[in-house]
Each structure stands twice: as structure tokens, then as C-alpha cells.
Fold these 2 entries.
Entry 1:
Amino acid sequence: MSLDHVDGFVERAQTQAVAMRRHVLSLPAEQLRGRPWDVIAAIEAFANDQGLAMLFRRPKIDVVRRVLAALRPRPKVVVEFGTFVGTSAIAWGAILRELNGSDATDIHVYGLELEPKMAEIATDMIRLAGLEDIVSVVVGPGSESLQNLVAEGKVRPGGLDMVFIDHWEKYYVPDLQLCEKLKVFHKGSIAVADNTDIPGAPAYLEYVKKGGDLENGTVRYESRTLYPEAADGSRPSAVEVSTVVEV
Ligand SMILES: C[S@@+](CC[C@H](N)C(=O)[O-])C[C@H]1O[C@@H](n2cnc3c(N)ncnc32)[C@H](O)[C@@H]1O
């Protein structure tokens, strides 16, 4: 997603996010507490009625869910660049729990979010969804946060099953390359990037479609573009899924 250069875009999104939190937390708690998919539905319903830009919505989540479900070994650790209000982080937490069983202890989602206010809202939504034990939001530039997670041993070498890239386009390639440099991928890890066609991430697409940095890199990708379909027949933007085939 790359509309950050548009005047006032981030400020407007933040105002909308604050209103969304007020609305969702005013709904009957028993309908949402501990129910990740209902929390996501409530956020999406607010977005449809009142406007809330930037969500990674359900048709796209379902596309990635199918990819995650096919991975062996089962995915356990996800890092996300760009968490905003937490929709996708909640989805990854719910999916990891569904795939690994609700008593799995070694699953974790790290949502990396630049803006403290958005991180705070995401944390509230994650708590409402009952996923606070397995989904953490880390505030700051994602590149710094990932380096800290590796230094702290929370994300281990070869220990990352999916990186989800959904922040600003100018960081897509450098942050994917940081994952390579930190050696967190294993063979079969996936990098999933949103909005690679619209607004577009041409440099990222070129990089993964050619397989990565073939001259200097150690990681090689095979990449495919997936086109989610919405229930109303509309065509959301594409999702790029790149599988690490050599590491
Ligand atoms: C498209 S939104 C993410 C949407 C989110 N994945 C969801 O499904 O609701 C992009 C987010 O990336 C954050 N962001 C931008 N640059 C970042 C960076 N360098 N590190 C971490 N987060 C960043 C923005 O503050 C914004 O909240």
C-alpha cells in the first residue's frame, strides 16, 4: 500500500481508526470477545459503513489462508510489516491456531507497526479477539523491530514461516531483503505482499518474479500473483505469494 505521500492520508486513516475502535468497543462484548472472525467482521462492517481505508479484507485473507493451510510443516511463526488496526494480524493468529490446534504453544504472530496510535488500537482489537497470547504488536519502523526480534531470539534463523508485507511500497524490497540478510527464511517460507498491482509495487514484483537477487543473494523465490474474488463480484487488488525455494 503506498498512499502515504498523499497529504493528510495517514492522519485521516488514524482518525477513522479511532472512530472504528470507539464503535467496535461499544458493541455487545459477548458477541465479540474471544471471536476473532467476528471482530474482523465488525471492523469490516464499520469500514463499509463509515469508511476505513487500508484493511486487508476477508476475500484476500481467504486466499492467503488456503496458501497457509497447504504449507508443510504447518506454519507457526508470522511477521507482518504494517499492522494498522490489526485485521490481518488477528486473521493470521486465528489461522495459525486453527491449523496447529488451540493448545499449540509455539505459534506467534508479530505485527510490526510504525504508528504508536495504530499499534494501540490494534492491540485493543487483538485483546478483544482473545489472541493476545499469540499475537504481539511491536511499535516502530518494521526493519528495526525485526532486527530486535531476531536479536532477542524471538524470531530465530530459519524460523519464519510467512512474512506478510503490507506497509508502504518503498519498504517492500528493503524489508524483504532484510529478512534474507537476517536468515530467518527456511525452504518453503512464503513472502506475501499486498497491493502489488494497485497502487502497485513494481520494484518488488520485478525482484520476486525474477527469483530474487540472483547475483548476490542466497535466497531464491518462485512467485505467483493471486487475484482474490469478493462476494459482490468486485476484484480486489492482487496478492503476490513468493515461495522460498532455495536458501
Ligand atoms: C495498509 S496498512 C496495513 C493494513 C493491515 N495489514 C490490516 O490488514 O489492517 C499500512 C500500515 O503500515 C504502517 N507502516 C508504514 N511504514 C511502516 C514501517 N516502516 N514499519 C512498520 N509499519 C509501517 C502504517 O502506519 C499503516 O498502519
Entry 2:
Amino acid sequence: MHHFHLLKAARVKKETNDSVNIGFEIPQNLRHEFAFKQGQYLNVRFVFGDEDLRRSYSIVNAPSEGNTELEILVKHLDGGKVSTFLNNELKEGDQVEVSAPMGHFYTHYHPSNEKTYIGLAAGSGISPVLSNLKEALYQEPKSNAYLFFSNKSINDIIFKKEIDELAAKFGGRLKIIYLLSREKHSEDELFEGRISAEKLSQLFGRFPEIPVQESTYFICGPSEMIKDISGYLKNDKKVPSLQIMYEYYAAPDDDENAEMSDEFKAIPNIESMVTLIIDDDEYSFHLNSKKKSILDQALHDKLPVPFACKGGVCCTCKAQVMEGEVFMEKNFALTEDEVERGFVLTCQCHPTTNVVMLNYDV
Ligand code: FES
């Protein structure tokens, strides 16, 4: 289980007009718990009135940088209470509730590797991609990296200064290609627009030295971009799935008014007794299979369940099925192996047997 700790926002720096870079100081006694891998994320928690709001933000730094702060980037979203507060109100020295790093958006590096890593990021999707590319370059002196990074305009390019400095520091091992969708910054049309399968195919043509099939890819952006690019890499370029890592930066196709899927409509309409194991304690409640998700019912009953995105993206609400069966609506976070081992995202789960037991402590 992931508990929240109060951390000091040691650095709060406006990065672009609509984003802020926050560095949390990790005190000595929490260094072990907050040890992280490149590409992981933190959950932050705010209680505004009677609302308990949680959000996930990717870590920007790389472990090899040896920073004692954990840095995140928060893009302001219209109507987003947490992102508005963090962009407009948070001051250096303020305390924020933060839980330990989580997530699987990374690969393992080794100093003897001679690989090529390709980062494909849109807007604030840069954070976990940059963390991974930095770690690769620090840990693997013989590896190279490319970053294809799309933004609306030059002024919207998040971490531009840091990225340009990294490119200079790694002396040709890191190549940066900025794409702009609403501003012309080059005579060359290749550098206009967004990242798409078509654009990537053109970029591969321009950089023929890239070993497309052997490279490892880190993709972070909106769901259409991820689907388009990962499909192209897998199907057209025959890149093995294990070399394509992606992270959604919002719940894909998230729409509270979205129609029930046909699969959800088809589950039996039953009353179930759901038991949750949380920190060695057991909690039980009745739930109709067609009503709330298991997580929503648990939150309604004020049970101490972990959650953040509620959209099947962040994996914070993961639990293992110990008894019975559930239907999981969406899954953008668990691996096939985890699903086979009975792990589920409780924010997406509905019971399909009369008795269900889930364990959050695994
Ligand atoms: S709360 Fe994020 S996947 Fe369930």
C-alpha cells in the first residue's frame, strides 16, 4: 500500500506559461521509500472541502543525476483544481502530500549496451521520456538517443533549455528534433505538425542511421498518438512489442458520459458481497455488478483504498483477485503477465460473481 507523506516543495519554477516545475525535497528518513526508477510517477493528494483529489505526475529527473529532490512537471488544465492550485498557488516551502514513486515505464540499462533509444513525446508527455533518455545516456556510454518532441510553439516547449544543454553535454549521443504544430520555425516542412505514424516514417527517412527495428521506444502523449505510433512500429516496422514502451498522460478516451461498452452490458446483473484486504484489515460491502466500480463503492464507504487517475491509467488502485471474478472495463496500465496473475485495476472493476475478494496488499 502506498501512503502519503508531507514533502516540502523546495523549488517551484514556472516552466512555460501553463506549466510549473516542482522539486520535492526528500528527507533522509524517506530516501529509501522514495528511491525511484526513471519514468516512474508520484501521486499527490489534496483535500479541498470534502473532496479528496489525487493526481499522478511523472518524475522528470533520472536516478543517475543523484538529485535529492524529486522533480515533477504540472501542466495547467482548464478547470483542473489540482493543476490550477499547483500552477497558481503553490509556493516554495509549502508542504504537499505525496506518495512513493510507482510505475513501469522504464527499461533496464547496462554500461556495456550499445543501443539506440527513441523518445517520442507530445507536450507534458516529455517528463517520463526525458527521465528515461537521461538515464540511458548516463548509464550506457556507448548508446545513443533521439528525442522527437512536438509542441504548439517555441514558447510551449517544456524544458527546452535543459534539453538543449543535455544535447550539448552528451556531444552528439543525443539528437533533438522539435516539431511545432502552430508556428513555423524552419523552412523544412518535416519539422511542422504533430508526431504521427506518417511523420515518424518521414523522420526515419531523414535519419537513415536509426536502426528502426532494433531501437527501444519511449512514447508519451495522448491516446491517439500512442495508438497510431505503436501500431505503426509493431505492424509496419516489425519492432518487437517489448521494445515499445508507452505511457498515457490522460485517461484515454476518458469521458464520464461514455456509453457502457457492449462487454459491460453483457455481464450478469447480480448482487455481490465484495471484501477488500487493505493493510491487513478486511472490509466488506454489497455491490450490484451494474452500478459503481469497486473502487467508487469503497470510496463512497470511506474505505482507505489507494487511487489516483480513476481512468485505468496509473495503476495506483491495483489489487489481486483472491476469490471470485470481476469484469475490468479498461486497462492501460497492467501488463499481460499481471492480468494473467489475477491483478486488476479496481477503478475499472465490477463483480461478476456473488462473492469477490480482492487484496491490495500484494
Ligand atoms: S486509479 Fe489509476 S488506474 Fe485506477
